[in-house]
Structure formats: structure tokens, C-alpha cells
UniProtKB/TrEMBL annotation:
The keyword Manganese does not apply. The chain crosses the membrane at residues 15-41. It is a single-pass membrane protein. This is Late embryogenesis abundant protein LEA-2 subgroup domain-containing protein. Keywords: Membrane, Transmembrane, Transmembrane helix. It comes from Kalanchoe fedtschenkoi (Lavender scallops). It is found in: Membrane. Residues 74-177 form the Late embryogenesis abundant protein LEA-2 subgroup domain. InterPro entries: LEA_2, NDR1-like. One of its GO terms (cellular component) is plasma membrane. It holds the Pfam family LEA_2. It comes from the Eukaryota. GO terms for biological process: defense response to other organism. The keyword Plastid does not apply.
Amino acid sequence: MGHDCGKHGYKPKKLLLRILAGVLIFLVAVLLIVFLVWAILRPAKPQFTIQDATVYAFNVSTNPSLLTSTIQLTITSTNPNDNIGVYYDRLDVYATYRNQQITLVTRLPSDYQGHKEANVWSPFVFGKLVPVAPYNALALAQDQKSQVVDLVIKMDGRVRFKVGSFISGQYHLEVRCPAQITLIIITTLKSQILIIKFY
């Protein structure tokens, strides 16, 4: 005749505690790795500067309220990161006046920017007979007479970041560059040239 040696098998409470402890340790390790990567790399956003602009046309009519403009911009983007590269998958640039878009969107070419590198683009932003709000047309006409126009150059796009051989998913990039433009009108026999300065 045999005798009972006690309860056999696993103990569900101890197994559940071990699983929870394992998951918790794994999550803490992942968060620690993410924090260390962030602390070592110190990722920073690309820095954008409008270096120059040439205004070839800036004509406002108030009745009807229409604007024709052609502006060539020189835009510089600098990657301040030591170990992170930037892929510009899509980058659109346009000009606005008092929160109203006054030019068509110009798409910049896709590009890669390495560590501490700078990229330079020279797009044309233009609009022919673009309808503007009547109050904006009056304000633009007044600004044109005073030879100072406040524009905001906007860029919207998608970027990816590269660390070693790892390439991240796409992120939205939004850039706003306010520019106070001084219009100096030089009259020649054939045309008017508008030169601008940034302050």
C-alpha cells in the first residue's frame, strides 16, 4: 500500500509571477536601451535658413483681388547631428501672406543629408493671378507702396532618419520662416527688377 507524498505539479501563482517579472524586466531593458541611444545620439531637428531671394514679379490688383508673384529662394538646410543622417523624401515650399497661401507649391528634389552636412536648394515659388482675400490685396498694395512686405515661407514634407544602417519610418516635417522683405525697385528700359533683403 502506498502513501500520499503531498501535492504534485506546478504552482500557478509562482509561474504567473515569474512571467510578469520577465515581461517587466524586458520592458525596463528596452526602455533603458532607448534612453541610452537617445542620450548618446542626442537627435536634433534640421535647421533651415533662407539665405537669399530674388523677386522677379510682385503685382497686386485690388479689383478683382489678384496677385502675380515670382520669387526665387535660396534655402539652406543644416543637419546638426554627429551620428544621424536625414533623408528628405518629400519637401514642398510655398509663400504665404497673413496666413493665406499666395504661391503654388513647389516640390524640392528628394535628397540625403549626412552628418553635419548642409544642403542648398534654389526653388522658384510663383503664382499667376492668384485670388487673394480683398483685405489682403489692400494690405499687399499698401506694403508694396511702403516697399516692405512680411511673408512667411513654409515647407511641409516627410523625412526619415538614418543611424548606422538603421533607417526610421517617415516623420512629418513642418518649417516656418518669417521674412520681412524690403522691395527696392530698379526701373530699367525693359523691366522692373525687385531686390529683397532679409532682416
